[in-house]
Design goal:
21 strands, 25% strand, eight-stranded parallel barrel, 2 domains, globular, 468 residues, nine-stranded mixed sheet, TIM Barrel, alpha/beta, 27% helix, single chain, Lyase, Ornithine Decarboxylase, Chain A, domain 1
Length: 468
């Protein structure tokens, strides 16, 4: 339930009847310990100091300051390989929108994955990194003629068309350039994913795709087939993000493959490919229980095999899009504590408010999606008993919350370092200059070496576009 003055004003937002902590957050036995599922593969504590990729976080901060995103290269590559190997014989598309820079684009290519982009800027990064255009997919519900022209001319491997106008634009570009565009038709299967409304993408009342139920998807397929210069690869379905339950894919696959079979039966065209999307969930807190890639591959493989057998059709070449599942857990954000204050709640309970030197400018997801995160003291060990804390940012907004609920040592104090795990997806990508904040750097760590792959913005960067 929301409230016009913000989520914190909604009934029950501060849990006044059961104490201030949510039921899924038990008081820890050791407030210094890491919960492994929340952190990248190499993260551990050494005498209280967080170490990632063999690099001490306090030492890293001494060189790059805070806030800073810390990216575990080994963990990223391991997750990429896990999806590649589990879905052997399929194409795995890394989500550029989750986080993209030239270094990460190179890692994606080196690990044998394809790459999704959804803007001219993301395409520029991919091409600058040397990614093979044939292994790039181009998403978006409103691609401009300029963007489409560049995609066609560069030889992008597939354009996921999302409107009748876009099909017309692609046809016009191919006629003018003499090139062929390979496309997939984005369809909505009418599946309501169990996720936040803003990241559920297969129900009918939203901006993406052509509805199967209304017949739009059929009309779009026919329009593509009638257009010279366009090669139809297949249908593309995506039911949402941060998904843990495979049942939604079962319903979507049934409906999408039924359309696939109808195209073959009635139009005599066998589309060679099928993309079932993905959007697989990760662990932000202990209440999340993500599946590993092997389990996902088994479940999706059974679903596709069952539906194809039922329809009496050959299985098309499958592609999937893990979404945040590769980069999300591979990165954490490190902050410095600025202030600590105690706030009395109803019923005599108190909450410790810990203010850090970042906030909604480097992680908008808590404010935007009511997302939950976890945190740990990153620079020292403490023997103080745990206290329930709310980690908030420095911006001039009451909703500037980084972590709504977490137990931290009772002696948390200004100058302490706090690390928030699972911030690889969408945090740096959605980062802003709100309150004229400077966006943090991204530092890759591996084998004891820290390398800045995206530098911190400077005041010169901030003022460069201000022509006053």
């Amino acid at each position: 339930m929301t409230h016009e003055a913000g989520w914190a004003h909604a009934p029950g937002a501060l849990h006044p009847f059961s104490g201030p902590a949510p039921s899924w957050l038990p008081q820890p036995h050791d407030v210094n310990a890491l919960v492994p599922i929340l952190w990248s593969a190499t993260a551990h504590k050494s005498d209280g100091e967080l170490v990632i990729g063999g690099v001490s976080v306090p030492d890293l901060v001494a060189n790059v300051n805070t806030p800073a995103y810390v990216l575990d290269e080994q963990d990223f590559r391991q997750r990429a390989r896990a999806f590649r190997d589990a879905f052997a014989g399929c194409d795995v598309y890394y989500a550029g929108k989750a986080f993209l820079c030239t270094t990460v684009a190179r890692w994606v290519q080196e690990e044998g994955l394809c790459l999704d982009v959804c803007s001219d800027g993301e395409l520029s990064v991919a091409l600058r990194a040397g990614v093979d255009p044939a292994r790039i997919g181009y998403h978006g519900n409103n691609k401009t003629p300029m963007e489409l022209r560049r995609a066609v001319v560069e030889g992008v491997g597939r354009i996921i068309v999302d409107s009748f106008e876009e099909i017309e634009r692609v046809a016009s570009i191919t006629a003018e350039t003499g090139r062929t565009a390979r496309v997939m038709v984005r369809v909505t299967a009418g599946v309501e994913a169990h996720t936040h409304e803003y990241i559920a993408t297969a129900h009918e009342d939203q901006k993406f795709g052509f509805s199967i139920t209304s017949g739009q998807a059929w009309d779009a397929v026919r329009q593509v087939l009638d257009a010279p210069g366009i090669e139809l690869l297949g249908l593309h379905s995506h039911i949402g993000s941060q998904i843990f339950d495979s049942s939604g894919f079962e319903v979507a696959a049934r409906r999408v493959l039924a359309l696939h079979a109808r195209v073959s039966d009635e139009l005599g065209v066998t589309m060679p490919e099928l993309d079932l999307g993905g959007g697989f969930g990760i662990a932000y807190t202990t209440q999340d229980d993500p599946s590993d890639p092997a389990q996902l591959a088994t479940e999706l493989g059974k679903i596709v095999d069952h539906e194809c057998r039922a329809l009496g059709i050959a299985q098309p070449h499958l592609s999937i899009e893990p979404g945040r599942a590769i980069v999300g857990p591979a990165m954490c954000t490190v902050y410095t504590v600025g202030t600590v204050k105690e706030v009395e709640l109803d019923g005599g309970a108190t909450r410790t408010y810990v203010s850090v030197d970042g906030g909604m400018s480097d992680n908008i997801r808590t404010a935007l999606y009511d997302a939950d995160y976890s945190a740990t003291l990153a620079g020292r060990e403490s023997d103080a008993p745990p206290v329930l804390a709310r980690i908030v940012g420095k911006h001039c907004e009451a909703g500037d919350i980084v972590v709504k609920d977490e137990f931290l040592p009772g002696d948390i104090r200004p100058g302490d370092l706090i690390a928030v795990p699972a911030t690889g997806a969408y945090c740096r990508s959605m980062a802003s200059n709100y309150n004229h904040a400077l966006r943090p750097p991204v530092v890759a760590v591996k084998d004891g070496v820290a390398t800045t792959i995206v530098r911190r913005e400077t005041e010169d960067d901030l003022l460069a576009t201000d022509l006053g």
